[in-house]
Amino acid sequence: MITLATWLVFFHVLAALWLVAGAFSGAVLRAQIKKAGSLVEKVFGLRTAWRLHLVFTIPGAILVGLLGIDLIARRGYSMRDLWIHVSLALYFLLLAVTLLYLTPKLKKTLRAGEASLEAGAATDEFRSLSAAKLPGILADVNALGIVVITLLMVLKPS
């Protein structure tokens, strides 16, 4: 008989895959946006990145955390274990970076891109926002953080 905890693990893993789909496809899309030759292509890439972010990254990040925190107690893990503290600290840091920095920055860049399309040429704001390196760096660090958290979940070092 399949228990509730087994189903929760399944949905936790599914949510993690959902999150990874957004995080890693975003990295590929950012590379393509940089290579885009026209403003139309760049804005199309940003629209796609925004959609991936809303459909995969944000819901995946929230759901994986809620299920993971529930599973800590349900599966009998101790809150005194270092791997749990490190995992939770990384998770909340990555979630904060995503929700408080990356999401607003992507939305602002997309809006500037849309305004540029309406104006018929890239605005100074759009050029500045799309040239910023920090959002891409932090998004890639988030993807690496997901890998580290996954490693901790698998190995559960004492």
Provide a descriptive summary of the structure in words:
With 158 residues, the protein is an all-alpha fold. The chain is 86% helix and 0% strand. The protein has helices at 4-35, 39-74, 82-119, 124-131, 134-155. It is elongated. The two termini are 30 Å apart.
In short:
It is built from five helices and no strands.
Structural features:
single chain, 0% strand, mainly alpha, 158 residues
Annotate the secondary structure layout.
Layout: H1 4-35, H2 39-74, H3 82-119, H4 124-131, H5 134-155
Helix pairs in contact: 1-2, 1-5, 2-3, 3-4, 3-5
Helical residue percent?
over 70%
Beta strand count: 0
Structural class: mainly alpha
Give me the strand/helix succession. Answer: HHHHH
Q: What general outline do the C-alpha atoms trace?
A: elongated
**Arithmetic mean of pLDDT:** 94
Q: Give unreliable regions as ranges.
A: none
- How many individual helices? 5
Largest sheet: none
Radius of gyration: 18 Å
Tell me the β content. Answer: under 5%
Distance between the termini: 30 Å
